[in-house]
Amino acid sequence: MTQQQPVTGQCLALDLVNSAYIVGGTRGRLVDSIGSPELLQDWCAQRVDQLAPAGQPGKLGDEDLNRVRELRAAIRGALEAVVNDHLVGPDDVQTLSDNVALAHRRVVLTSDLTIRYEWSEPDFGTRASMLIAEDAISLLAERAAGVHACEAPGCIMYFIPTTERRCWCSTTCGNRARVARHQRRMDNGD
Ligand SMILES: [Zn+2]
User: Fold this and answer.
1) Domain count across the chain
2) Mean pLDDT throughout 2-25?
3) Is the pTM of this model over 0.85?
4) Dist. CA 118–CA 137, nearest whole Å
5) 109 alpha carbon to ligand 1 midpoint, in Å?
6) Binning pLDDT at 50, 70 and 90, where does residue 185 land?
7) Could you tell me the distance, in angstroms and rounded to a whole number, from the CA of residue 169 to the centre of ligand 1?
8) pLDDT at 66 over 70
């Protein structure tokens, strides 16, 4: 069964980071919505619009899964550094650069004014990794200051808030954080 990750639709890079999430708060369990090559394939199929330049989604294997998970760890590491006001680690930067260098694409305009891509690499999985890494690089270089880590206890999501004051990735987390705050007040006898 396809796992439905709770926070999606921000951008490819954030969607990938948020593909591993905790269900059930502080004592919850980690769910990986790309836990197997088949699940990774579903994840890509749900993002055909964003991954369209990579062409038709093909079958993915263990090698693709390992590469995408390594990419996910690097993007998470970079975001963790950003929200803590640290410099991004050289290994994470290297992983992003390596993934971007996996494939090159040339934009071609056809006579009916649609865009076609000519790739140096025929494989869908490799092209998809390249597109995700490219998205991560533009996120980090252009919008890093806008990325927040969810403040709810036990949540590991990153998101770009739609309003300035939003501290939680989802209403579920907002409610959980409010309950936890209320509980703390009760415990302190306020
Ligand atoms: Zn959250």
Assistant:
1) 1
2) 87
3) yes
4) 22
5) 42
6) confident
7) 4
8) yes
User: Is 138 domain-assigned?
Assistant: yes
Distances, alpha carbon 190 to alpha carbons 174, 183, 185, 186, in Å: 21, 10, 5, 6
Centre of ligand 1 to C-alpha 21, Å, is 9
Residue 163 covered by a domain: no
The tokens of 116 are what?
């076609």
Cα separation, 102 vs 78, in Å, equals: 20
Distance 170 CA to ligand 1 centre (A): 6
Q: What is the distance in A from the centroid of ligand 1 to the CA of 178?
A: 12
Ligand 1 centroid to residue 67 C-alpha, Å: 26
* Ligand 1 center from residue 53 Cα (angstroms): 31
For residue 172, what are the contacts with CB-CB under 8 A and spacing of at least 6? Answer: 6
The answer to whether residue 100 sits within a structural domain is yes
Determine the Cα–Cα distance for residues 77 and 86; give it in Å rounded to an integer: 11
What domain range is 120 assigned to? 20-146
Assess whether pLDDT exceeds 70 at residue 1.
no
CA 90 to mean position of chain CA atoms:
20
Whether residue 99 lies inside any domain: the answer is yes
Q: What is the whole-number distance in angstroms between the Cα of residue 75 and the centre of ligand 1? A: 18
What was the pLDDT predicted at 2? 46
